[in-house]
Amino acid sequence: MAKPTLTISSKNYSSWSLRGWLLAKFAGLDFDEVVVGPDDASARAEILLLSSSILVPCLRHDGATIWDTLAIGEYLNETFPEAGLLPADRIERAHCRSISGEIHSGFTTLRASLPVNLKGHFPGFKVWTRAQADIDRIWAIWHDCLDRSGGPFLFGPRGMADAMYAPVVTRFVTYDVKLEPRLKAYADLVMAMPEMQEWIEAAKAEPEEIEELEVEY
């Protein structure tokens, strides 16, 4: 059987690549990376939120090809149930799917005004009112999940929801968004995961820059 592959784009800029990659890592899947450079037109369009590219992330495993991030998470949960990507409890599993779906399809103002940029740091960044509304909703989701689970991750053990919200955590770091202590503890936990540290180090080593995603004052 051929070794599984995960097609991704820029580690510095692509939030969807990060989500798919974390899901595969959390599942314990041994895979090879296939990297599509940001100079590729389709990959660039995905990074700039101009299209719903089917190029990245794309998991190929045991004859299956899966290119939607939520579908990748569901497939990995089904294939590697012992990894616990989704909660065992039916009600909590439904809750996890709901908040994962919300980040998958929503928060468009946050995405556009605070793009993922792991090499960047912009202290004092001015957050638009509409983007703040997205941030407030994310904070409410996190509080609710931590209340229900008791932490330390959104549903207790780390899982699909944490992978889905990890790019949001990086946005808060990049744009110096202040968090209250409880949420900062969760964000710090996500950033400290060995998988996140591995991804960030690789992102910092990338030579490419996308000018449209570099904030100017």
From TrEMBL:
One of its GO terms (biological process) is L-phenylalanine catabolic process. It comes from the Bacteria. CDD domains: GST_C_3 (cd03194), GST_N_1 (cd03043). Signal peptide: none annotated. Keywords: Isomerase. It holds the Pfam family GST_N_2. Transmembrane segments: none annotated. One of its GO terms (molecular function) is maleylacetoacetate isomerase activity. InterPro entries: Glutathione-S-Trfase_C_sf, Glutathione_S-Trfase_N, Thioredoxin-like_sf. Residues 4-84 form the GST N-terminal domain. PANTHER family: MALEYLACETOACETATE ISOMERASE (PTHR42673). This is Putative maleylacetoacetate isomerase.
